[in-house]
Amino acid sequence: MTAITIALSKGRIFEDTAPLLKAAGIEALDDPEVSRKLILPTNRANVRLVIVRASDVPTYVQYGAADLGIAGKDVLLEHGGAGLYQPLDLNIARCRMMVAAPDGFDYDSAVRQGARLRIATKYVQTAREHFAAKGVHVDLIKLYGSMELAPLVGLADAIVDLVSSGNTLKANNLKAVEEIMPISSRLIINQAALKLKRETIQPILDAFSAAVKL
Ligand code: ATP
Ligand code: MG
Prior knowledge:
The chain is an alpha/beta fold. The protein contains nine helices and eleven strands.
């Protein structure tokens, strides 16, 4: 039987993926939130899970260290998608990529006046494309987390970040000023693995497709 490796991240992606895996007849034998193991066996002898950082999932799948993975569109846009087949939007881990700024900052008139904006973000590629398409000049400052802090201490005029409830923005006196795009997580497959291991991968893909909630 052909062996399959699936790359996942802990937290919301694992939680939202567990029911989809179950629909495909796959159940982890360890809880990644409890276990320190990075390779988790499943009830199926030929299927294992590897637990990696959310932003590393496309890299593992691109190089074939994992055959399948689940990654946010945010992460896939930054990665670029080389070597990946992206057949299915799983409609999980949904949120929005937004521009946010301090309550007192008049973003629209800054844009209208052609001001050069300082933007702090983890999503440099996405931000660069967004502002280039609008013709807004920006200096991008790469951060790895806690983007909300940047405008509060004068590091940036605005941020590009994921927003779901908006509570974190509110707690820091920030407001969303523009939506860039809706975000959800996708199933990704190594292009070579799909050809070589089609008999094992196709049923998993079909079960996921049938289990996706619209
Ligand atoms: P790390 O915690 O390793 O730095 P991360 O913060 O990107 O990485 P998660 O918070 O687990 O990892 O997010 C995983 C994915 O879930 C993101 O890539 C994104 O697609 C989605 N996501 C992030 N924040 C939210 C949110 N507030 N609501 C819904 N989905 C989200
Ligand atoms: Mg996080």
